[in-house]
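To: structure subgroup
Subject: Chain for Friday's discussion

All,

I'm putting the inputs and outputs inline so they're searchable in the archive.
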Amino acid sequence: MDPKEKRNLEPELNQDTSTGTAADVEEVMKKFDRESNTRVWEGKPKLIIKGLTILFSIYCILETLFGTFMPEEKLNIFLACILVLGYLNYPMKKGMVRVNYMPWYDIIIMVAGAFPFIYFALNAKDIIKLATKVTNNPVMVALAIIGILALMELCRRCVGIPILCVVGVLLVYTFSNVRFGKVIYDLFYTTTGLMNTPINVCSKYIVVFIIFGAFLERTGISTFFINLANSLAGSSAGGPAKVAVISSALCGMVSGSSVGNTVTTGSITIPMMKKTGYKGEFAGAVEAAASTGGQIMPPIMGAAAFLMAEYMGIPYGEVALKAVLPAVLYFTGIYIAVHLEAKKLGLKGIPRDQLPKLSKLLPRIYLLLPLIILVVLVSTNQFTMQLSATIAIGITIVVGIINTFVNKATNNPDTTDNLTIAKALDALEAGGKGTITVAVACSMAGLVAGCITSTGLASILITLIVNVSGGVAMIALMLTMLCCIVLGMGVPTTANYCIMAATCAPILMSPAIGIPRVCAHFFVFYFGIVADITPPVALAAYAGSAIAKAPPMKTAFNATRLAIAAFIVPYIFAFSPEMLFQFDEGVSSAMMVVSVIQIVITSLLGIFGVAASLNGFLYRPINPLFRVLMAVGGLCMMIPGTVTDLIGLVLVFGVIAYQRMGTKVKAA
């Protein structure tokens, strides 16, 4: 590096390397994330609520395996449990931190809100026989209204306002256009409203996978992933940032929470990045972007893959396969960006003698066994998804016990990943608590779908979007992107996807727009995810900024820049389904293989061009004109097609060659 450039970088290299504490993270998350605002229970009340949550998790597992309830019975019991646990955990407003205190009005709302669902579950057969006549009874109408309002209030407390605004507008529209009794019947007493596909999938699949993720985290797999990433990439230039990318990709696919993953792995990787020389806002952004991307990482994809399979009507294995290339592009883009940033700053890696030895990590490869078996079971359709997840939970417990014995046998001083009975109970509790916000949001998604079904709003929305966009697919896609990002602010990814799958995906698939079904669903799924790193409400980035002690908004903008692939790739596969391995009928297998190889190579080169352009550094700083050329060349190569690939290759390699020659001349 040029001495002058080195001097210019000295202030950055001598920056503050301190990091935030757990209290700092909690303070920031309570400010921005409703899910982090919970009641404070201590002593016996805490044990009682923990016991109820554990029993709920056990009930969910047993019910999915052996339950013989009708859907109306099963889903109403599930929602009643969610309401009780939800109000026990989430206060009416922020700042209510009085220990062991629950206001009388919250108790009334909790009991009154859960009662309609319990009553429906106990009398489901009689209510079903009554059909629409049930709304002739004012008491039954009142029960339905109370139940819906109680869920909406819980949504406000633990999920947020954006999704509630959508539900509110749709309810007003529905009540003004459809008979009152019919609306109540459709939304509460049938499987087209609250008990629609989202909550059904949540109670059937998602809750078990959330519990599985909680158990997996307590076997030490997160530590294993971080150590493995350190062993592979820790010694390279800017190693800790690369470790963050690799470990967060692996941990994030299981956790299903970009914020949770940012806090878990970020508490280790962000301090390492800052000590290496990265700015705080960049270190926090790397962790946030990588953790968020974990949810698009196959094979688990934060449990969303199973929802997508249900909505698109294709096997889970196909969903995981189609997600491979976009996920590779996403993480490659971040990896390249942190590498170029390290080169620009002249940062080195961690000395090899301070890193875990790969030879010592390989014997613990058994920690991956639950994941491997789960993927095999689900992909081969040997068992149902919920049974496969339950088997994986059992294997996780066995692996955890084995790991505990291995630690004792090897006198490992680190016992944090030993699986004890207390940790197993903690996993059940964490799984139950993690289900609350997802279930509430899924119930709101059911209301959205119910309103659209009752009013026939889908065709109206399609006509509106087509008119606004003038039938231009690109404009329709941009409008959909904005909707996904706005609705995704603070909303669990699965629920955001449910809403967009019910509203925007059909619009994109309409003949006037013409986006293929699979591409439309992947499009809304991706943009629902990036809401966690997109300002102004970028929860994952804010969590990263709290650990890095960096400005939240700067961290969010850095995360958006790092995750640029997530903003580009969906548009590409929307117009070129080949990126998702979607081919026209009649295309030979040989042509498919050649096409896939071409797409993989050119897309990776393309993301390199875009990342280098945004970073502004290759062998030396890139001037503005060449940055534009690199960006254009990168985008051309990411668009499937021989002509665009050739144009992109010429532009990108032309800039690389010019940079390389200039560096040699300067050195001479």
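Points worth raising on Friday:
The first helix runs from residue 3 to 13.
Residues 1-14 have pLDDT under 50 and may be disordered.

D.
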